[in-house]
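Researcher: I'd like a structural prediction for the single chain below. Treat it as a standalone chain; there are no partners to consider.
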Amino acid sequence: MHQASTNSNGTSRGKLVTLDNMNPHLKTMEYAVRGPLVIRATQIEKELSQGAKKPFKDVIKANIGDAHAMGQKPITFIREVLSLVSNPNLIDKVNYASDVKLKAKSILAGCKGGSAGSYSDSVGIEIIRKHAAEYIQRRDGGITADPDDIILCAGASEGIRACLKLFQNEDGSNPAVLIPIPQYPLYSASLAEYHLEQVGYYLDEARDWALDIGELERSLKEAKATCNPRAIVVINPGNPTGQVLTRENIEKIIKFAFEEKLFIFADEVYQDNIYAPGSKFYSFKKVMMEMGHPYSSMELASFFSTSKGYMGECGLRGGYSEIVNIDPHVKAMLLKSISAKLCPTVLGQATMDCVVDPPKPGDASYDLFIKEKTQVLDSLATRAKMVADAFNAISGIKCNPVQGAMYAFPKIEIPKKAIEVAKEKKLQPDAFYAFELLEYTGICIVPGSGFGQYPGTYHFRTTILPQPELLAVMLQKFKNFHIEFLKKYE
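Model: Treating it as a single chain, here is the predicted structure.
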């Protein structure tokens, strides 16, 4: 228990920072992916380690897209480069491929003092930003990318949050940002923290979570009565919904944003994670530029990360933002804001360099790199289908195809009796379902209410990341639980 501090005269006083006088926006923000369910899952793990008897031996954390935590092996090229960047003394001592050593030397040459322990420029190491621009140019079929528009960051999340801050305004205009529902809770949490209004637009579950322009128009029209929408967030491929937007859909969104004068946030961190036949990733920048004037002059920020894709290097915190067509004066203010954080982690930047400038055909590491990359993505595609098929075989659960990303977002039917019990416990019905699942199976998921969902519907998000053998066990446990849950509350 916290004790009150004591003044020099021996009298006590209360805490200087309390819930009553602290920043109110921090109290309103929520981040469901690491919410109460995860806290309880961690407690259960400790209970198990202390010998507690449960109906299961281990907790399966399917709540977060952490590939390595779920058994994915690191890409050899990335880890060998990082080992040399971390300890340059090894370069002449270890039997690594020549291109691994060249890559490490290139990164170290961009580090002050030749050490990854030094600060980099706030926007990141120059050669890595150059490689990121070249990567984008290759990805987009030759459309020019400027290294000066690239800002390296500690994961895509930091880049997104830095750009959202640009829209904070105390002129009374009540700025707002359109975000998809369901959405990744980073957005709702950050908007609450920055005192920006959240304007949700519903994705169409009946059409595999498609983005409907009529729904955007409805959402915007309603929002304008109370706030000033200034930007739109699009997550492609989708999190938590796993859809991949068609080029036609992207063109319509760009036209809508142009007509309504909305800045575009293109969250494209899952661009390597495309599984469904016929699905293809198109970057917003590529489509926008190919649409020509006046769309090619629109303001856009896009984001990429080393945490997803085939890499799964979540803990190393590597990412970039590409800021396109932004006002030079605003860009200067953005860079000033970023400089207050000094720099993103240099090892995270080095990881990004391995991703945007990987081994090329003929390089010593190329064959192994392509083999490992392909194995990861092929396995994820298999698991994506495995998860959707398994849920669709369970009565009372419906799951759209997982076209991309790393998650399924199934809809569940919850009996009326269970809804009543949830209300008694002051829980959302899908949160009650998720807590029951955790206590009886050890499986940790995130309830759909943490992402937003159409009123009257219930969902949950699960990753597809557990390795195939564990995933099969998890899905069977899930089926058994769901059947018993329906019987219990029917």
